[in-house]
Each structure stands twice: as structure tokens, then as C-alpha cells.
Amino acid sequence: MIFGRRIIKSTPGRFATRVITQGVIPALHVSYKSSGIKQYFKEGRALRTETTINNTRDFRIGRSLSNLPELRAIGFKANRRLLEVETISQDCALAEETFEQVVRPQVVNDQRVSGLRLDDERVIALFQVLCLFLMTPDGFRNATMRQWMAQALGIPFEEYTPGKMTYDLRRLRLHGLIERIPQTFRYQVTGLGLRVALFFTKLHGRVLRPGISQLMDGEPNSPNRPLAKAMREIDRAMDGLIDQAKFAPCKT
After folding, report:
1. Which of 49, 90, 103, 216 qualifies as a FRET site for 158, CA 20 to 30 Å off?
2. 117 and 162, same structural domain?
3. Total domains present in the chain
4. Would you put residue 194 in left (φ > 0), alpha (ψ -120 to 50) or beta?
């Protein structure tokens, strides 16, 4: 993909991508036969991408100096392909659209469905339970998911009724996170559902909950305590700015 060359089982050479991070400045190495690309931070200030062609025969080109412009073009195209793969500018717009699709109400085939909000514990439980069925080849049934939902919510099984389960399955299906297996009463997680369930579950468990706890001065022994400290510094700076601007109410 990076070098624009076809590789089959009988193609000789080394083909690998390595990311080196331990004990050194992080670097990316992409190998194609005896050639390769190295990407790293030059003096910690700029991202440098350099291609080295150690054997011109890797690209069916002779070793004459007259072939230098053609080799230069190959190296430049490989660099551009790598940078294009790493570009996330377009993905940001797609990610925002996907986020809106999940968390906001939608109308799908003239059917209105409510959004899956991250501040709803029932929605978080749905994502957590979906993660249990990501690799299940034959899918899951209403009754099976209902049992796990009751456990995730910490309520008796009877309180999470079949009607609630049917409603939640409908929400997941219309948002494109699950789909019904044809000619069965079983469901399977879609590709979108896989990514959303994993991302939202990790986001809630590893970022939102501990982050909010620190902002509210919780977890006094947490190693991430600097977040709460930084917010207090912001509060003090804002108070000082307001006092300096004489915005404080006058005392009578």
C-alpha cells in the first residue's frame, strides 16, 4: 500500500511495519524488500519522513545514474502515501457525523428512534453488554441479552422486563449497531456497533468517570490528581481577572 507494489506469497524480501517507542525518540519503520521508510521527530521539533532505496532492483529499475529521477519519484510517492494514510482531517468530520448519528434522535425508514446518550446509565449498560457478544459467531437472543442487562444495571432480573429489552434492541438496530440474522430471532453486532461499543465503553470507564471524579476533588490519592489542581488554577486565574476588571459586585 505504501510503496505501490503488489506482494504475493512467493515475493522475496522483508515486509514489515515497526513502531519503536521504548527508550528512544518514537520512530516508525516500514520495510519493503531491502528498501524502507523511516519516520521520526527531527530534534524533537519536526516530523521527518525519509525513504531509502538500497536496491533499485526492488522496483525493477537499473542502477544507472540516469534512473535517479525515476527513483526520486518512487520515493516521493511512497512518502506521500504514508502521510496520506496518517492524515485524520477527513476522519474528524466522519467521526462527528457518526457521533451525532448515535447520540441524537434519528428517523430511519419513517421510524423515529431516541438517541443513545452517554449520560444514561442504561445506554452505558447496553454498550457494555454488546462488548460481550462482539465475537459470538451465532449472535445473541433477546433473553440472553436481557439477563446480562439486568446484571449490568445491578437490578433484579424481573425489573428489566422483556418490553424494555425489546425497546433497547430496537434502538440499537435502528442506529445501525446491531442487525437481525435473516430467518432467525437472533442478532449480531455490526461493524459500526463493534467500534462504537468498544470506544464508548472505554471512554466512559477510563476518561469520563475518573475525570469527573477528579474535577470534583475526588480520589485524593489518584496519580492523575494534576487535573483537579489545574482546574483550581484556572478558577483562581479567572477570579483574579474578574477582580482586576472590577466586575465584582459593589458592597453597600
Report:
1. 103
2. yes
3. 2
4. alpha
